[in-house]
Fold this sequence. Notes:
The complex is a heterodimer. Chain A is of the alpha+beta class. Chain A is built from two helices and six strands. Chain A has helices at residues 30-39, 74-77, and strands spanning 6-13, 19-25, 57-61, 66-67, 84-89, 92-94. The longest helix of chain A has 10 residues, at 30-39. The model of chain A has no long low-confidence stretch (mean pLDDT 87). Chain B folds into three domains: 18-197, Cytidine Deaminase, domain 2, CATH 3.40.140.10; 210-273, no CATH class; 278-546, Methylamine Dehydrogenase, Chain H (7 Propeller), CATH 2.130.10. Chain B has an eight-stranded mixed sheet with strand order 10-9-8-7-3-4-2-11. A five-stranded mixed sheet of chain B has the order 12-33-32-31-30. The longest helix of chain B is centred in the middle third of the chain and has 17 residues, at 241-257. The relative contact order of chain B is 0.08. Strand 2 (19-25) of chain A pairs antiparallel with strand 1 of chain B.
Amino acid sequence: xxxxxxxxxxxxxxxxxxxxxxxxxxxxxxxxxxxxxxxxxxxxxxxxxxxxxxxxxxxxxxxxxxxxxxxxxxxxxxxxxxxxxxxxxxxxxxxxxxxx
Amino acid sequence: xxxxxxxxxxxxxxxxxxxxxxxxxxxxxxxxxxxxxxxxxxxxxxxxxxxxxxxxxxxxxxxxxxxxxxxxxxxxxxxxxxxxxxxxxxxxxxxxxxxxxxxxxxxxxxxxxxxxxxxxxxxxxxxxxxxxxxxxxxxxxxxxxxxxxxxxxxxxxxxxxxxxxxxxxxxxxxxxxxxxxxxxxxxxxxxxxxxxxxxxxxxxxxxxxxxxxxxxxxxxxxxxxxxxxxxxxxxxxxxxxxxxxxxxxxxxxxxxxxxxxxxxxxxxxxxxxxxxxxxxxxxxxxxxxxxxxxxxxxxxxxxxxxxxxxxxxxxxxxxxxxxxxxxxxxxxxxxxxxxxxxxxxxxxxxxxxxxxxxxxxxxxxxxxxxxxxxxxxxxxxxxxxxxxxxxxxxxxxxxxxxxxxxxxxxxxxxxxxxxxxxxxxxxxxxxxxxxxxxxxxxxxxxxxxxxxxxxxxxxxxxxxxxxxxxxxxxxxxxxxxxxxxxxxxxxxxxxxxxxxxxxxxxxxxxxxxxxxxxxxxxxxxxxxxxxxxxxxxxxxxxxxxxx
Lengths: 100, 547
């Protein structure tokens, strides 16, 4: 961590199959945190899928029961120490895409 | 103040979760090579019921349980499921609502020794399988070899469920799984619970049903045997083994007292030899909820008209992609041409839909041109069309017509009359060639003519008799509604007043091969079509079958 205030949180994957304890800066924009999480070695998040398409992630704040906006900070959102954030990505199943 | 920069570092510490240290297998149950799956009955029935309650939209969620591991051998126990609501689902897809992750946390906090061991979702068509989309979801979110995926399909009888997992980079089906039934429950109760979860009823076979079968089988309902069956039908309590013995004794006595009963029984035996249940001859392929009556198949393109919603729906039977269009006027007949075009006859005209570009449909940018044709002057309202490569056959209740089709201005199709004449038999229906004679082959005419089943082949100046056979009861007095031909013979739907009865007749002699008795309203066959390659498809209430 550099100058920002660190806040301890729990991070989970979309289906809650893995969890981490980590500290995140509370004055950095959520979009920068997502970029950092993708770039951190040892974490299962990827910038692109097998077809080279960007994988969009969003941070879900469990205690606040909402997604964090990319342009807000953890402090601005009101995230408290030891709250749980979920790094979510699309999970779409089905036989085919709908034709409308 | 906020900072938009990435000049910071994070040091995540992965939490050790129960799934990271699975107990070894040999402390519990030995597994063979690969993965052994144990599924709790309550869990699987719950998923089936959830799927059944949503026939037009896929549902999904996560599976909860635990696993054991020794080397590369696994035992996975699926104990429970967490249904996840979706704000984005349809008959062909389901998207996990990321807001509902809360439900997973809450479930895991109740039983900290359990964790997510996979996921499930439903399919509204066909048998369970993992689509490309499902495969990708599994790879992205459940990469470990012990994570399982369950697909429950309400498109197949019994709402069958399949399980898959990753083995290396490959997605493999788990061929066997064990069902853990709650202790204290007896097998009969478990079977009842299973049937209820599948939306099925217990089979109500037994002597009383025999009386109801008599008219369906074309047997006399006032003979000695019939009287015996009716007596039995009134006594619903007679279901035991002792009652069966009593019935046999009474039957033997009735036969000895009335020699005509022997004739009845011999006829009954002959009829029973040709009796088939729908499940004996129909293989369910896809669920097509709300669709009935007018169907047509061309290759893998399934086309059906929804009477209640006035929509023409097309389904690609290979990819299961669907789309529908609103019909301007209720169709009278739907038929595929050999080139894949779909022709629709309405009360006010003819419409021709093109072959569907499945690749464009997949991308969601399907556009197509529809051609129309004015209805020609006919003797009576047109009832049926059969498109062939170079034109169109059409019939009314009394007359047949042959047209040549050419392209007119502004995408219109111009019909030029080439031949016409009275139908050779009243109540004749066209039977499309179904690929046997090639794209130019004319249809055959088939009719029940005063108790004789007849076919006529097209000749230069009309129709020539081809084959004839006396129709047995009860179809000798019933009109033919639809028919199709396959390598097995002539599949003929008769209108029996309360529904439609299916019979198969020999291709050459027209002798009855078998007949399908539909005791259940849901099994009533409502539509039939050849696919242009010799195969025949049939539709019951909301389900498409291969014949």
